[in-house]
Amino acid sequence: MRGKPYLIGCTLIAALGGLLFGFDTAVISGTTTALETVYELGSFALGFTVASALIGTILGAILVGRPADLIGRRRVLMVIGALYLISAVGSALAWDWYSFLFFRFLGGLGVGGASVVSPMYIAEISPAALRGRLVAVTQFNIVLGILLAFFSNYLLAGLDLGATEWRWMFGVEALPAAAFCLLLCLTPFSPRWLVSQGRVSEAGEVLRRLGNDDASVAREIQEIQASLDFAHHSMREPLFQRAYAKPILLAVAIAVFNQLSGINALMYYAPHIFSMAGADKSSALLQSVGVGGTNLVFTVLAMLVIDHFGRRRLMLVGSLGYILSLASTAAAFYAYGAEFSASMDAGTVVERARELIATTPSEANQEALRLATAAAAQANQAVGWGGTIVLASLLVFIASHAFGQGAVIWVFISEIFPNRVRARGQALGSFTHWVMAAAISWTFPMFAAASGGHTFAFYAVMMVFQLLWVLLVMPETKGIPLEDIQKELGIE
Fold it and tell me: How confident is the model at residue 351 (pLDDT cuts 50, 70, 90)?
């Protein structure tokens, strides 16, 4: 196969790394209550359990750059697929808390690696005019994976699988992971990696298969060789030097702001947040599906316009949406905090009564459940508009993220580094992103328990700073060939 269909096919396969990234990130949201019970976890230990995958993600992101340069982007993606597969099966079969942490850590290595290599590989096979949309397919697959995780959790929760329910939630990831490993055999090596290895004729053939004619192939290879400039540079030269200061600062800034929005708090704790706002277990899982669906819809809209509107304009719209939605979420927690707490406590009593009936189905326990359910209904009624405001605000929040930061971050980071340091530059951006994700995810249960209002207000203030950064610092990269972006940034 040649031409545009082949290019799109390779993009979709590489972007499956993003789908697994999204699924692995969000699937734990439906299991936090079970994990608390099974492993007897407090809020600090629960935060660490959720963050265990993120520790692997941090290491995967920072360590994958050198292997991607040495053995190629495609081979590294195959290793990442194997990590996802082992993690899914291992997490489902974990025999104690420590084994569970280990297998989640392996999955985190895969997520960190995929966040670097999937968008980088797609950027390196894409023509400039389509690069934004094609790299954004990774983000589309990330949010599709998140939606599938939320929906899978909701469906599995309805099957009454009992004590094994949470294990099935992790185990289903093994199917797409195995498919990813097999489909990667159909993709080529990155032409830019091939040129860096001196395999110029192979690079030319790959570019032809991707739809380039002979004249454009010769010109593109010449531009790639010029950008590598091996007469004065090498693939092993250090990333941290003054010449690359501008892309380094841009990558770190967009990654830090991405997480200071609180996006991963919502991804990892969506049902918990909705429970905090008065929803019962089933409603909280269903509302999480709504978050995933909104994320998907607005990611598609962003993909359609990113190469027309540009990265910077999407970031402006997203920043304004962040500020509005986070501020209103904080206001709801300030205004209805007591009612939310009473409703959440009542829901906990109902769950415990149901667990008691499952083990000891006596008339006394049935009466206790009836009384607890009536009390919970009364508490939920007292919540009033508070829960609706939180749901609406968080749907606006996820729409703003999908249309702005979510669509832009991986495209932008994959564009701003020169060919000779792109793998390590992308790794730095992803490493920063995941360090911040771990910090947010680990601390959220503790901070939210103290004050949901303060937590969301903090995220809103951080998004004011992001808006200022976009207005004053962020450059536009739409439609510019990769080899020309480094010139725009003043890199020789």
Answer: low
Task: Please state the domain extents for the chain.
Answer: 4-187+237-488
For residue 463, give both structure tokens.
Answer: 């998004």
Instruction: Give the tens place of pLDDT for each residue, 183-230.
Output: 998 888 888 888 888 888 888 888 888 777 777 777 777 777 776 665
pLDDT for position 231: 43
Please tell me the pTM assigned to this model. 0.68
Contact 41, 167 (CB under 8 A): no
Q: Work out the mean pLDDT of the chain and round it to a whole number.
A: 80
In the Cβ-directed half-sphere of 350, how many Cα atoms lie within 13 Å?
22
What CATH number does the domain located at 4-187+237-488 have? 1.20.1250.20
Q: Which residue has the tokens 């531009």?
A: 223
Among candidate residues 23, 187, 57, 37, the one with its CA nearest the CA of residue 97? 37
List pLDDT tens digits, range 44-82: 787 788 778 878 888 888 888 788 888 888 899 999 999
Better pLDDT: 1 or 422: 422
How many C-beta atoms lie closer than 10 Å to residue 384's C-beta? 13
Q: Which residue has the higher pLDDT, 426 or 467?
A: 467
Cα 39 from Cα 41, distance rounded (Å): 6
Residue reference for tokens 């909280």 = 284
* Burial class (CB within 10 angstroms; exposed 0-12, middle 13-18, buried 19+) of 231: exposed
Burial class (CB in 10 A: 0-12, 13-18, 19+), 130: middle
